[in-house]
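can u do me a favor
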């Protein structure tokens, strides 16, 4: 097998397409043709025997004065070299031919897949309504996102002697009012429970303010009761504030994952970005993963302390998984480039 053919097969083994492998090979072997035994190698001269050549016996002929110009020309014999001193092959590299780096290797494609899933999971976590799950029996299927709140009245459990249907109807009647931006306008609609669905989503800040406005008239002007209600509202508002801060950090992580996806994809298909940005996709992926995990940590640290029985919801775990995948994508790209 010729050196050019061997080099060509090594490039193919790295995961490059036949077209790319041929282009890389012809950078070092310009006249290489795949599949040939030798890519136009320089001819090897066979040493001429140094034994004496017997003289030709003259044939008896009439004496003729032959003109010197008519004598048969004798070809000049090239100097005979030792068998080992052959002419160098013009297409054989003097040193080890460097192999191309990068290419569509499985590890690089694995990094691209991880960063794509990380981006999707971060976006799903950003808009999820299930970062906090209320596990209390009378919660009525209440969950909270970063800045939203959701109630699924079909999950309401019967309490205090009320039947399942009565609890569901009460949830359906109150949720649209408490989750609305304008509570008075929602009350004025005066819809029946049959006209209201089971699932309701609203802004968490509106929910806190509406709860205060709904309960404060029951204090009958009691300043101590109103002061306690005000403290409860302030504590309630800390939850969407924590979600807003965590959400901003998560947005940065999602943007980093998007940039990392573009860089890693360009590197996987052999495209060159401005300033060779495709070489830095590994760092973008790692940074995106760290920001996603940091978003969860910041959100959790800023949450208020309450006595409610709550747990982390699907939104938290999707974001954590997205952060881990983004870091894995960066590590895979780093190992591939190394």
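np, heres the sequence
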């Amino acid at each position: 097998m010729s050196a050019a053919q061997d080099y060509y097969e090594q490039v193919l083994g790295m995961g490059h397409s036949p077209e790319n492998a041929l282009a890389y090979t012809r950078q070092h072997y310009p006249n290489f043709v795949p599949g040939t035994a030798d890519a136009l190698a320089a001819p090897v001269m066979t040493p001429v025997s140094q034994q004496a050549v017997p003289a030709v016996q003259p044939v008896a002929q009439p004496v003729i004065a032959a003109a010197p110009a008519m004598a048969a020309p004798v070809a000049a014999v090239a100097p005979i070299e030792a068998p080992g001193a052959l002419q160098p092959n013009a297409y054989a590299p003097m040193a080890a031919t460097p192999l191309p780096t990068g290419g569509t290797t499985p590890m690089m494609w694995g990094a691209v897949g991880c960063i794509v899933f990380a981006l999707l999971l971060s976006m799903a976590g950003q808009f999820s309504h299930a970062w906090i799950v209320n596990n209390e029996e009378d919660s009525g299927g209440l969950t909270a996102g970063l800045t939203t709140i959701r109630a699924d009245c079909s999950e309401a459990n019967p309490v205090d002697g009320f039947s399942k249907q009565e609890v569901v109807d009460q949830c359906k009647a109150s949720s649209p009012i408490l989750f609305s931006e304008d509570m008075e306008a929602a009350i004025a609609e005066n819809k029946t429970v049959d006209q209201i669905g089971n699932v309701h989503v609203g802004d968490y800040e509106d929910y806190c303010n509406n709860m205060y406005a709904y309960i404060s008239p029951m204090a009958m002007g009691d300043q101590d009761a109103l002061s306690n209600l005000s403290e409860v509202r302030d504590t309630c508002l800390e939850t969407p504030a924590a979600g807003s801060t965590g959400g901003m950090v998560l947005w940065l992580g999602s943007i980093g994952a998007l940039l990392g996806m573009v860089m890693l994809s360009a590197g996987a298909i052999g495209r060159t970005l401005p300033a060779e940005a495709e070489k830095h996709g590994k760092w973008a992926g790692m940074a995106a993963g760290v920001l996603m995990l940091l978003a969860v940590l910041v959100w959790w640290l800023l949450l208020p302390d309450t006595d409610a029985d709550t747990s982390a919801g699907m939104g938290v775990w999707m974001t954590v998984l997205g952060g881990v995948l983004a870091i894995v994508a960066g590590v895979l790209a780093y190992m591939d480039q190394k």
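Residues 223-268 form the longest helix (46 residues). hope that helps!!
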